[in-house]
Amino acid sequence: MNSRAEIRLSDVVAAQSRIATFARRTPLKRSMELSRRFGTDIRLKLESMQDTGSFKIRGAANRILKLQAEKEIKGLAAVSSGNHGRSVAYIANRLSIPATIFMTHLVPKNKIEAIRALGAKLVIHGNDQDEAELEAVRIAERDGLDFIPPFDHADVIAGQGTIALEILEDWPEVRSLIIPLSGGGLLAGVALAAKKINPEIKIIGISCTRAAAMHESIEAGHLVSVIEESSLADALPGPIAMSNQYTFRLCKDLIDEMVQIEEEDIARGMQFAFRHERLILEGAGAIGIAHLLATEGRFGTDSAIVCSGDNVDMDKFLTLI
Ligand SMILES: *Cc1c(COP(=O)(O)O)cnc(C)c1O
Question: Is 151 near ligand 1, meaning CB less than 6 Å away?
Answer without folding.
Answer: yes
